[in-house]
TrEMBL record:
This is Oxidoreductase. Signal peptide: none annotated. One of its GO terms (molecular function) is oxidoreductase activity, acting on the CH-OH group of donors, NAD or NADP as acceptor. The lineage of its organism: Eukaryota, Fungi, Dikarya, Basidiomycota, Agaricomycotina. Keywords: NADP, Oxidoreductase. Residues 17-260 form the NADP-dependent oxidoreductase domain. Belongs to the aldo/keto reductase family.
Length: 297
């Protein structure tokens, strides 16, 4: 089955695979994005906190692509204690765009305890046309429940998704399906990048050998089987070509079950969500420093 164009609850169509730009140094971003677009990516994912929106924008300009031919997502990450209204203006400026396709709250920690208020600020951005769709990232069911009385449901929830966290994440995935919220899966290759030698390797390598494909393609095909948007990355053109080729790789129900059974024997969410806390702590310190600076002025 080729990559689907996934329909969001606001009627817009999002390309099923996106090129992620987290951790790409500024001096490499423009080239990497150009390579991604060259091999067929038409969906780029960045964020305020990645610090490379300017270079993403430069790449988009260099391609000469029509604005409607590329999907651009960015996120409000709360850098320097910004609120969404200020952050979106800065992001659009850096990207050199009049609108983004999707604007996300990067983490519920940015808006707790008043999640509804934070979401209302995102709705304002939607109304102003600064983003065509709005959504959230790293939201739990309890966070999403706070938004149930909003007239606008998040279009997506961008979350960590790979076989080692699938069993624990299933209730969230099911909740999102029920509410019409599309899942965007980030870090799908964690079994290869952060837990090589783990129980998922056995079925993944066996399936890869049987199909004559690479193990990373099997993991991305597994995400595809869930109907989620895939967010992945590489600086290498050949890898990006392999990711794109996943459009033509379909797993059987037995393959999917074998991967999930092995995934359930792995370490689970606690092992893989560690980075979020230090990052958010860093942002909080940055915010506190800014508030102190404004108070001293
Ligand atoms: N909203 C959020 O909080 C987050 C969003 N993201 C988004 O998702 C994007 C993708 O996330 P990643 O964690 O980078 O994705 P990922 O799990 O797809 O990992 C990509 C890495 O895997 C490597 N790789 C590919 N094949 C491999 C193999 N066979 N063996 C070993 N390594 C291999 C690639 O070279 C690349 O460095 C990010 O760039 C960002 O845009 C990522 C993390 C958090
Ligand atoms: O997006 C990737 C991980 C990350 C980097 N900075 C933040 C801030 C808030 C949530 C997640 C992240």
């Amino acid at each position: 089955m080729p990559f689907k164009e996934i329909k969001l609850n606001d009627g817009r169509i999002i390309p099923q695979i996106g090129f992620g730009t987290w951790k790409i140094p500024q001096d490499k971003t423009q080239d990497n994005v150009l390579t991604a677009i060259d091999v067929g990516f038409d969906h780029i994912d960045t964020a305020q906190v990645y610090g490379n929106e300017l270079q993403v924008g430069a790449a988009l300009k260099e391609t000469g692509l029509k604005r409607s031919d590329v999907w651009v997502t960015t996120k409000w990450s709360g850098v320097a204690a910004t609120r969404p209204a200020q952050a979106i203006k800065q992001s659009l400026d850096k990207l050199g765009l009049e609108y983004v396709d999707l604007y996300l709250i990067h983490s519920p920690r940015l808006v707790r305890p008043n999640i509804f208020q934070g979401w209302s600020e995102m709705v304002d951005i939607l109304k102003k046309g600064q983003s065509k769709s709005i959504g959230v990232s790293n939201f739990l069911i309890s966070d999403l429940q706070e938004l149930e009385s909003s007239p606008i449901t998040p279009a997506v929830n961008q979350i960590l998704l790979h076989p080692y966290v699938y069993a624990q994440t299933k209730p969230l995935i099911e909740y999102c399906a029920q509410k019409g919220i599309v899942i965007e899966a980030y870090s799908p290759l964690v079994p290869l990048t952060q837990y090589p030698g783990g129980p998922v390797d056995k079925p993944v390598y066996a399936i890869a050998e049987r199909l004559g494909v690479a193990p990373e393609q099997v993991l991305l095909a597994w995400i595809k089987s869930k109907g989620a948007v895939i967010l992945t990355t590489s600086s290498k053109k050949e890898r990006l070509e392999r990711y794109q080729a996943v459009a033509d790789i379909d797993l059987t129900d037995e393959d999917i079950e074998a991967i999930e059974l092995a995934g359930a024997k792995g370490p689970g969410l606690a092992r893989f969500r560690k980075y979020v806390k230090p990052v958010v702590l860093g942002l909080a310190l940055q915010g506190a420093a800014y508030v102190a600076y404004r108070w001293l002025l």
